[in-house]
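Bug: token stream looks shifted between consecutive jobs. Job 1:
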Amino acid sequence: MKNKTVQKILFTMGSLAVGAATKSLVSFIWTRVRGNEPPSNPAHSDVKMSEALGWTLSLALVASLAKTFSRKKVTEKLALDV
């Protein structure tokens, strides 16, 4: 049981770190490519629906890929059986 608890802690901490880094990276790339900050409030009247959806999809895609990649690497490095 202790091993499962350690796995959960490692995956949780890793997911938090990867999530924060991913959001910063995607925000940086969005700003460089689009020339403006990503929308922080999609309900704001100045934000177009296409921009809000583009930001959401971009962030979700990259975050999912990063989480999957990092989880795979942690599992391989620690030879965990999940």
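Job 2, same session, no restart:
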Amino acid sequence: MAITSTNIKRRGALQFRSLFHHVAEVEIMWNPDNVLSNNVFHEDVAVPGAKLGDMVMVSVRSDVQDADVSAHVTAADVVTLGLHNMTAGAIDIPEVHTHVVVLRPYHSDGD
């Protein structure tokens, strides 16, 4: 299991209220598996309230050894984290503090 802890927060909505009507924050301790050269490791995280079409921002608090970290909503209440290794060798990142923010913009359909 690569996700070792999850802390769901609901703060920050006021500063984004004019652009987004839903803001969810999740702090995760993540220990991705060893990722071979030119491969991707994906991990699902439960984020209550996340919907397809939401925007996701992700940050990590350590060196990811030239890999790219991504996140996107893949189903209701699910955000998938991705670790993309585009280097010439395998990488093994130790447990890392990861911060995910899910934002739902106002849409013309009233959503």
